[in-house]
Amino acid sequence: MKRNSFVSIALWLTLASVIGKVLGFLKDVLISYYYGSSASTDAIFLALSIPTILLGVFTSSTDSAIIPQYNRLLHTKGREYADRNFSNIINLISLCGFIVSLVILFFPDIFIDLFAPGFNDVQRMYSERFLRIFSFAGLFHILYCFFCSYTIRYKQVVTRAILSFLTNLLIVVVMIIWHDPFMTGLSIAYFGGSLISAVLPLIAAARLKYKHVFFINFSDIEFRKYWYLFIPIMFGALLADLNMFVDRFLASGFEDGSVSSLNYASRITAIFDSMIVIGIGVVILPLLSQQNVEGNKEKFKKITTLVFEILFIVLLPIMILGMYLSEEIIQLIYYRGKFDMDSVRIVAKLFFYYAPMILLVPLHSVCARFFHSLEDTKTPLKVTFIAVILNISLSIVLSRLISLQGIALATSISLILDVLLLLLYMYKKIGWDSTIMNLKTLSKIFCAILLLWGAISYISQFDLPVFWKVLLSCFVGGVSYGVCVYLFMKSDIQYIIKVLRSDI
Question: How far apart are CA 27 and CA 173, in angstroms?
Answer without folding.
Answer: 9
